[in-house]
Every structure is written in structure tokens, then in C-alpha cells.
Amino acid sequence: MSTTTPRTVLITGGNRGIGYAIAEEFVAQGHRVAVTARSGMGPEGTLTVIADVTDGASIDAAFTEVEKELGPVEVVVANAGITRDTLMMRMSEDDFTSVIDTNLTGAFRVVKRASKGMLKARFGRIVLISSVVGLYGSAGQVNYSASKSALVGLARSVSRELGARGITANVVAPGFIETDMTAELPEAQQAEYKKSIPAGRYGSAGEVAKAVAWLAGDDAAYITGAVIPVDGGLGMGH
């Protein structure tokens, strides 16, 4: 029988999509959950704090509010991200740097702020949300792929720096997930995408959420620096 110790959890970008599902899963497991959002709200049972991961002062203020309301952050999930897809020859420098600043430097800002309390407590769970394209690659996503690939190096370096203090840092790499965006694709295009997925279907945001919650839980205490794919086999070997 697995055990679940109630923790204070903060998820960035928890107002929609995968982040929203992750927040729901942690609430269902009995944790104290906060989400950051630039707009909108997290699911019922969560504390929503307005924050922008590209602004260090904004992140610091968000953590301070969560610590005041729910206690020191023990689990942080760096999920906030953006895309600016276009072929490399058409990609502007701003298209590249803005995605890196949100997806990669944003995760760094969040992890650095979270680590202060984790080091003091000698406990912490850091989960970074990457993507199958981080290691698999994707035409038209040089910026996004680079940002998501770099999260692996971030997690592994953090694991080496903080591992002896009871802090783990892992990466979850989702593949094609059922979202409003994929639902709008033409049926023929959806069928073509599914041919490349050994499982023959898209994943659900809830399946990603369960992997994240497991990594943050008591049963995964000896797992750090790992990349957990939730992609139906799409990225095997990458």
C-alpha cells in the first residue's frame, strides 16, 4: 500500500491544460495546492496567485504569498510554457529568446526560489515539464525543442547539487496529449499523427498528472535526474 504524505505544492501555469490537470491530481491526493497564472484560475481547492515566470520579482512575491497561506513549498512543478512555432529560417531572434526565457529561464527562476525553503527543510521535490520533442526534435520548433531539452540538463545538475539534502529533481516528457488544440485538428491529420505513436492514441492530461504526482510522492524518494516519458512510446530511444 503506497503512502501519501500531505505536502504544500506549487504548480506554475496551473490555470489550464496539463498544469490544471496536475493541480487537480494533487488536490485529489489531499495536498495543499497553489498554482500560478497570468490570468484565469486554478481548479477548485487550489490557491491561485498571479505571477509571470519571466519576472523574478513576480515569482518571489508568488512564493511569499503561498508560504504565508499554505506553508513552505515542498513540491514545485515547473509547467508554465509558451510556443512560437515556425521554421528556423523564418524564426526571429525574439521568437527564439522569448520561448527560452519562459520555458527554460522561467523554470530556473522558479526552481532557484523554491530551493531556498527546500534546503532549509532538507526536503524537496522538483518536477520539470518537458516534452517528447525535447529529445526527439520537431521541425518548426527549434526554439521550443531547445528549451525543453535544456530542462534535462537543469534537472540533472540540480540533482547533483542538492541531492544530498533530500531534494530530488526530475523531468516528465509528455507526447501528444488530448487538448483543445489537438481536438481541432482535422480527423485525417489526427489519424496520421497517431500512426507514429506505438500506443495508437493520444494521452490524457490526467495520465501526465499521475506521473508527476508519483515523482513527487513518498514512493519515488530515490529517483532523481530521471526523464519519465508519458508519450505512448513515441520517443523511444531518444
Describe the protein's topology.
Elements: E1 8-12, H1 17-28, E2 32-37, E3 46-50, H2 56-70, E4 75-78, H3 93-121, E5 124-129, H4 133-136, H5 142-162, E6 167-174, H6 180-183, H7 187-195, H8 205-216, E7 227-230
Parallel strand pairs: 1-2, 1-4, 2-3, 4-5, 5-6, 6-7
Helix pairs in contact: 1-8, 2-3, 3-5
How many helices? The count is 8
- What is the distance, rounded to the nearest whole angstrom, between the alpha carbons of the first and last residues? 33 Å
Biggest beta-sheet profile: 7 strands, parallel
CATH superfamily: NAD(P)-binding Rossmann-like Domain
Q: What structural class do you assign from the helix and strand content?
A: alpha/beta
* Helix content percent band: 40-55%
Unreliable stretches = none
> What is the CATH domain class?
Alpha Beta
For this entry, what is the oligomeric state of its chains? single chain
Q: What's the β-strand tally?
A: 7
How many structural domains? Answer: 1
Gyration radius from CA atoms, angstroms: 17 Å
Bin the strand percentage: 15-25%
Q: Which second-level CATH architecture applies? A: 3-Layer(aba) Sandwich
Mean pLDDT: 95
Gross morphology is globular
**CATH topology group:** Rossmann fold
Strand order of the largest sheet: 3-2-1-4-5-6-7
